[in-house]
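User: Hey, quick favor. My workstation is busy. Could you predict this chain's structure for me?
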Amino acid sequence: MELEVLKRVVIITEATIKDELLNLIMSLGAKGYTIDTVCGRGERGLRDDDTLLGEYLRNIKVEVIATKDVAEKIASSVVERFFNNYSGITFLHDVQVVRGGKFKS
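Assistant: No problem, here it is.
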């Protein structure tokens, strides 16, 4: 088994921007993404896991595996485009991936 080092981009933000965020990620060269509903507390307060909240009042976590160049483009573009008006955090780290070619152009 051969492992390849790629980048994992994690974006945690408001679900209201989900569609626009996912379109941006794909337009920058991502081959796919994984998305979860999450809750937590930050400088803008508590986002609870209350099932009574509408879908767009929750937070989401989007994860993308990509090459270094694509990952850095995604991270900087997300911060520039969304985080002046919406809460969020983005971080990257190295991951070892089996079948790494699936994530390249």
